[in-house]
Amino acid sequence: MNTRPDIYVKNNRNTGKRSVVAGLTLLSILLISLPPFMGPYGESMITQILIFSIFAMGLNIVVGYTGLFSMGHAAFFGVAGYTAGIMMVHYGIVNFWIIAPISIVLATLFAALFGIIALRVSGLYFLFVTLALGELLHSVAWKWRSMTGGADGLTGIPYPSLGFPFNMNATHFYYLVFIIFVVSVGLLYGIAKSPFGSALQGIREDEHRMQHLGYNTWMYKYLAFIIAGFFSGVSGMLFASFANVMAPEHLGVHTATLAVLMIILGSDRVFFGPMIGATIVLFLQYYASTFAPERWPLILGTVFVLSVMFLRGGISIHLIKFWNKMGSWYASTKT
Amino acid sequence: MQALKLKGLSKNFGGLEVLKDISFDLEVGEHAAVIGPNGAGKTTLFNVISGALPISSGKLEMFGRDITKASTHQRIQYGLGRSFQITRLFPDLTILDNILLALHGTKPSRYHMFRKVVAYDGIMEKAEQLLQQIDLWYLRSKKVKAISYGDQRKMEIIMSLASDPKLILLDEPTAGLAIDEIPSFINTVKALSGSTTVLLTSHDMDVVFGLAERVIVLYYGQFIAEGTPEEIQADPKVREIYLGIEENEGYAES
Question: A49, A55, A100, A226: which has the highest count of C-beta atoms within 10 A?
Fold first, then answer.
């Protein structure tokens, strides 16, 4: 009956998928084999990129998929970081298998509590309520000197111990972060492609219509908020040991802005977009702090404005367009 | 048991009474239409039945269940479906994603987090069948914002029928359809199972008289008349609303 051509061409899709799988495999092999050759700076750089990628990709479940602009998830990043740090510095508990669950669960519980408050409002008000809740914790970290070290920060946070007989060094820690990163990306990918993830995008497009299809949209937004809180916690817990220090700014607007910037720069509509954003922002930050530390905000601001002007929708979208163009150019040379 | 029961339903927007003390029942399997001039309150009536707006006073029952205070998504889970006069789809998602959202919406799978949305065989079959029906299956990987308005209208109707609702509200379903597509729409509605109750509004009297066994007339938020299409066509009050008062009867003679 239907004589029109099926433009949903299976082969195209599969080659697309194949190149993604190939790219990911190559990236994994690189990430696994590089550390001995990279030197301490490169290793620390990539560790940091992976940690912030978990944060930004997790946050993108709320910002990109659900369309809720949260400025508050740095709070959960900070809660996990401070919890891990306080346990290690003040109580001498360094076992990763105790620290990780406690700090991540605590961050998730904070997200569950803050979510109830923040989701009472929407739009710009949501942004400001999440911002305010983050600043609330920021000032707690600032004032509670005996626990958090106040403005000086909580210093001397060591690497956790996995229970192995050797002491963890930077390379071991890198591999720990890498494994957690792979698991997190797997979980996030599952969520993004599931009926649940699909429903989040529906809510972003038209929440009212979603209710008319039978979706309890509040519950979806709430769960998305908590899921992002969970991954912020994972990331924050790792960050504490990576940086050796937690400071009040890690809970507040500074870190929140950085995470949102990574998402916007990289693209909120592409699954790996926030990771690309994180890579760019952290590399810029690294070089800026080496050559012109006092100019960092200026450089970041300029890059942000330029990318909004010339790379609408995020860098990843333009990378994909470029990749496809190269693909069709390559195909045309063969005929 | 009635599919829908409205008891003294009123809706005010501030001082403006948009619906005044409306009461009527729909039997299970009945096809009824609400008509009335612009501003009669037809869409508002649909909005209070679907729960998009809270009612100011009165009572609503669906299949014997009091739904006056139920939220929209609960009403959908109880078996309500609704299409919108102004197309409301998910423009940045593909046609397939749109229809899958509609199909998962009333199933427990809507909360699943670790299985691909396209990995449910039964739901995919249903999606293919629905999209073949409106000849859009071959375009399923296109974003909805990229297809024609007529196709979007067809999507709108298919989306509201996807979950096999027991009671369907169709708000101006044929607005925006090409004239030659209207008979196929009428057939779609007629082909619904006999136990499906339909309430629709339309400015197209061919649609109203082609589908409705009973017609309800609203005028400025007030219930004016109800009856079979023939009774309504003959009703002097309805003629007055639609055609105006024949006060100059002698005019032609002079």
Answer: A55
